[in-house]
Predict the 3D structure of the following.
Amino acid sequence: MVKGINLSYDGVVVVEVVVVAVVVVVAIVVVILVVVVVVVVVLVVVVVIVVVILVLVVVIVAVVVVVVVVVVVVVIVVIVVVVIVVVTVVAVVEKEEEVI
């Protein structure tokens, strides 16, 4: 038999105190577990948000790098083409002047 605290003068064991104590302990444990679960969920959400932000930053940086590289390559190609055209035109003009 479950014995509790004897609060009476006639020797009768008061089981209700034990039941109340058990209920209070269970309630405290449940509250602690709920708080722990909420904290863990919040931490997981924060970690997921941070990871998503980092991935977005990496993707944005990669896109910017690719765009910069493409622009630099296009500028270099345009400069080379312009130089080739200018040199060719100058050479053709000089040959025509020699013929004349």
